[in-house]
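Thread: "does anyone have the structure for this chain?"

Original post by V.I.:
We have the sequence but no experimental structure in hand. Need at least a predicted one for the grant figures.
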Amino acid sequence: MIGHIQGKVLFSDGVETIVLTSSGIGYQVFFNRVLSEGSFVSIFISHQIKEASEQLFGFQNLRDKKMFELLTSVKGVGPKGAFNLLGYLGTESIIESVLLENKKALTAAPGVGPKAGAQIILDLAKKINKIRMYSPSYKVDADNLEDLPVFSASEVIETYPNDKSNEIMNDALVACKELGFREDQVLPIAQKILSDNEVTKPEQLVHLVLKEI
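Reply from O.Q.:
Generated one for you, tokens below.
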């Protein structure tokens, strides 16, 4: 099983990335961020094997990989649905949605219906907090490697919420709850605002949400 790869980015379009490793093999990976071609990248991998196919799903850190694999353990949630959900909400928002039994938030992602959302909450309520034991950091060990540009956050064109966006989202949700609003009222609006606008502070997001409610 492949759990991690690193190498030179040959192609990246925000859906798939091809990484050329030092062995000369180029791996095609589902990866929901655009990477600079020619840069060096280190990606955690979940290797999904079926009877007729094999697929590699890539993640920036171990926590996201473990969340993906936990989601795929739920009956009725396939790899594509889990990958879409993780890309749409992010790990921390999924954890909070499960703990708060917010089925509406979980079903906002393409490919995750009401039945799957309810099953995620049922199956993972007692397991999901354990995901926080895994590291959310992204580390590249480029020592003794070829002289290639090293992947950095500035070289990524975000296509889904990143860790900073998740932090802003969580802080904004807490603030809105303190103002008396329910999470299921706030979350869909906040998600759309984050996807359509450059938001750098929780208070900015709260202000924009309150204008829409």
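V.I.: this helps a lot. DSSP finds eight helices and seven strands in the chain.
O.Q.: and The longest helix spans residues 163-178.
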